[in-house]
Amino acid sequence: MTKLVEGIVAPNPGPLTLQGTTTWLVGEERILIIDPGPADGEHLDRLTHEIEGRTVEGILLTHAHADHSAAAPRLAQSMSAPILASSSTLARLGLAGRVLAEGDFVPVDAPSGVDRVKLQVIETPGHSADHLAFLLLPDRWLFTGDLVLGSGSSAVLHPDGRVGDYLASLRKLEALRPARLLPGHGPEVADAEAKLEEYRLHRLERERQIEAAVASGSDTVDAIRDSVYGPLPSGLSAAASASVSAHLAHLAERGIDAPAPGPGMFEVTGSDQPGEFEAGGGEAR
């Protein structure tokens, strides 16, 4: 299956994007693009070069954040290819396309004699409400977008990110028993089950730390953030505050008395349109 999958890293490194966003090309002669990445000319030129001589059958989006989706309209036009995403992602971006939902399958072009290769669509909210993952069958390679990264931990940012949904999505992926993870940021993960367990346990530990900070008297988002994370680079401080707010909202859902969440980041309006979708996947651990 290795020859059917190629990752191309965009030149957008940063504290939330790690080395950059990985765009995945899947298929032999007729390919699918998973997360075309930012609207960066260098990245688009490289994608065009790698695709040359092949047909693009579809552009799949894991979610609406710009570092994963911004190149989609231009590529869709230049490659005459449809965009495939959740209904929420399409609405947030104001794009037309094919709606993907839990249990859908997208065929993958494979060499002669290799049958029934396809992507299974899995709804995985938590990092964002519109998030999807894609399981490549029959090898069970899992494209995780921003839900699980190749290193570090993923951001769950209030208000669009929800800790309860995130934990449920991790449990759903664990139940699938994937063989390998192909994330939107960072390296591939060979021990998929161990990484998923690590992520679930990390998120639960973060919740315990925030609950303990509240119990010890920290009564504002900033105070809880400083207690749990300690000093942070300026580029991660706002994300850590939004992560704390997501956990405070989850504590309230669990019936635990906690301070009110802060305003968070990347607010979604009632019309399901984005205020900002500039987030990457990473978070200070």
- Overall structural class, as computed from helix and strand content, comes to alpha/beta
Q: The biggest beta sheet, please?
A: 6 strands, mixed
The strand line-up of the biggest sheet is 1-2-3-4-5-6
Rg on CA atoms, Å: 19 Å
Notes on the protein architecture:
The structure is a single chain. The protein is α/β, with parallel strands linked by helices. It has a domain at 2-190: Ribonuclease Z/Hydroxyacylglutathione hydrolase-like (Metallo-beta-lactamase, Chain A), CATH 3.60.15.10. It is 34% helix and 19% strand. It is built from eight helices and 13 strands. The protein has a six-stranded mixed beta sheet with strand order 1-2-3-4-5-6. It has a five-stranded mixed beta sheet with strand order 7-8-9-10-12, with no helix packed on it. Strands 11-13 form a two-stranded antiparallel ribbon. Helix 5 packs antiparallel against helix 6, helix 6 crosses helix 7 (221-229) and helix 6 packs across helix 8. The longest helix has 24 residues, at 192-215. It is elongated and about 65 Å long. The protein starts with a strand and ends with a strand.
